[in-house]
Write a structure and sequence with these properties.
By secondary structure, the protein is an alpha/beta fold. It folds into two domains: 323 residues, Purple Acid Phosphatase, chain A, domain 2 (4-Layer Sandwich); 130 residues, endopeptidase fold (from Nostoc punctiforme) (Alpha-Beta Complex), CATH 3.90.1720.10. The chain is 23% helix and 26% strand. It is built from eleven helices and 27 strands. The strands form six sheets. Strands 1, 2, 5, 6, 15, 16, 17, 20 and 21 form a nine-stranded mixed β-sheet that branches. Strands 7-8-9-12-14-13 form a six-stranded mixed β-sheet. Helix 5 packs parallel to helix 6. The longest helix is centred in the N-terminal third of the chain and has 21 residues. It is elongated. The two termini are 49 Å apart.
Length: 499
């Protein structure tokens, strides 16, 4: 083989590798969602517009909005420079008519898709709705939510096809109250798209309505929908992420069939007559990462806050994230979502590969178990607790192994009889390690943990639920307490273990 021929072959191989890299499908997608956006109203006059013509309203959060494959928001008002027919009003109505040039602010901030199913989209009648559709279309933004006009949208980003639809209880919108029709729209999108995003504007409004009641909500005599039933129904039909808004305050999040729901994201950027005092000023950015089928992998809550009419800023106190966590624990205590102090959202189960029914090498499985168990570092100890928000020692090992298909006994005295005894120097990651209880001279087992590393028995580390410090990692040789009480190790995982 000549050197020239070898060179040609090498170039062909390099080209094939590069092509494969370029066309290989993405494994995960990230979607950022925010709540109500009303950038400033020119009604009744331009004097109502924000300072600097609103050019800097989104500057403090732009990097977060841009750091996703898709960014979504609810457009709470129409784009119209002038005119239109103001809606009939008996007392105390709000009218939102944004200058058409403000669409550029959305593009600059990184938005990809807007919901236009809400009450304020109809503030200026057909002229406002029609012009908003025209402005969004010309700007290249995806949009949906108006009945018989733009009920769904399909768009592509980075080789992934997204479907989107929006719902509300208001005239001219695709109705949140017609669940059967909503399911039909979602199912149609699911049949042609990789990821389906659903938006709803529903539920009662105000600080007294921050809970998800799981029943139909009536506000000002209007049926505002059963948002709980609706969200579950659209996921049953094929939706992958559900973003809610409408109450002007935050509501809980939930994981249903491995799909993420947040029931209200509150006011995000509402310069004008919106109330942003107290919890009404919380303006989170919710980032959801899914696999290529829409299955939830992780999330991130960025706690924005509106303190004045100059747009959202990041809140060092993490007020929005704490409020969403609090409400979630109240309304969905059994949801597997776990909220971290840094705003991360994880789950209390580990995402195995799609081929999880196949045999898995014990070393690989052990690594997965250790990674899963470390998610709970810092969780509190509670006697008799089996998780996911607190554990005792055997509750922790039982909980971890259960999510990998292994049914351990409920107590450490039961667990010590369920595997193969292993000498300390031969313990491997994923093995169980047992100790006596507080009385070092006792003969019975009183404590258990999971080995995470071992260098010939001289530097063994294990993770466990400590009675005084919760889930933590210990080094056996550096702990006189546990070194004195060590009993034995146990191997649960074996080569070719079936999950």
């Amino acid at each position: 083989m000549t050197e020239l021929f070898k060179l040609k072959i090498a170039l062909i191989i390099i080209g094939l590798v590069a092509f494969t890299t370029l066309v290989s499908p993405v494994e995960t997608v990230s979607i950022v969602g925010v709540g109500d956006i009303m950038l400033g109203s020119n009604y009744p006059s331009d004097k109502s517009l924000p300072v600097n013509d609103g050019k800097f309203l989104l500057k403090n959060v732009k990097e977060i909005l841009q750091d996703a494959d898709v960014t979504f928001g609810n457009l709470e008002g129409c784009f119209l420079n002038s005119g239109g027919t103001p809606k009939p009003c008996k007392n105390g109505c709000y009218f939102f008519r944004m200058p058409e040039r403000y669409v550029d602010y959305l593009l600059d901030a990184g938005f990809d898709v807007m919901n236009i199913a809400n009450n304020h989209m109809g503030d200026f009648g057909p002229a406002g709705r029609e012009n908003t559709v025209k402005i969004l279309k010309n700007a290249g933004l995806a949009y949906a939510g108006l009945k018989d006009v733009c009920e769904t949208a399909v768009f592509e980003r980075n080789g992934v096809k997204y479907g989107f639809c929006g719902f509300a209880p208001n005239t001219g919108t695709v109705r949140i109250t017609d669940i059967e029709y909503a399911k039909k729209l979602v199912s149609g999108l699911d049949s042609i798209c990789d990821i389906v995003i659903v938006s709803f504007h529903g539920g009662a409004e105000g600080k007294n309505f921050n809970r998800v009641p799981k029943k139909t909500e009536t506000f000002y005599g209007e049926n505002r929908g059963n948002v709980y039933e609706f969200a579950h129904a659209v996921i049953d039909a094929g939706a992958d992420v559900v973003f809610g808004h409408g109450p002007h305050v935050l509501r809980a999040a939930e994981l249903y069939k491995d799909r993420f729901i947040i029931y209200s994201m509150g006011n995000f950027c509402t310069s004008g007559t919106f109330s942003i005092s107290g919890i009404s000023g919380y303006a989170p950015m919710v980032k959801v990462t899914t696999d290529k089928t829409g299955k939830f992998i992780s999330g991130q809550l960025f706690s924005g806050i509106q303190r004045d009419k100059t747009g959202p800023v990041l809140d060092e106190k993490q007020s929005a994230a704490k409020e969403i966590e609090r409400l979630t624990k109240l309304d969905f205590p059994k949801t597997p979502l776990i909220f971290r102090e840094n705003g991360e959202i994880n789950t209390n189960f580990f995402h195995l590969p799609d081929s999880s029914s196949l045999n898995v090498e014990s070393d690989t499985l052990a690594a997965q178990i250790i990674e899963f168990s470390k998610q709970y570092l810092g969780m509190p100890y509670r006697r008799g607790s089996k998780g996911p928000n607190s554990f005792d020692c055997s509750g922790f090992t039982h909980y971890v192994y259960k999510h990998f298909g292994y049914r351990l006994g409920a107590s450490c005295r039961e667990q010590i009889n369920e595997g193969e005894k292993v000498d300390k120097e031969n313990l491997k990651p994923g093995d169980l390690i047992f100790f006596k209880g507080r009385n070092s001279k006792a003969k019975y087992t009183g404590h258990v943990g999971i080995v995470i590393s071992n260098e010939s028995g001289s530097n063994l580390e294990f993770i466990h639920a400590s009675g005084s410090r919760g889930i933590k990692i210990e080094e056996l040789e550096k702990s006189d307490y546990y070194k004195l009480r060590y009993i034995t190790g146990l191997r649960i995982l074996k080569e070719g273990s079936r999950l």
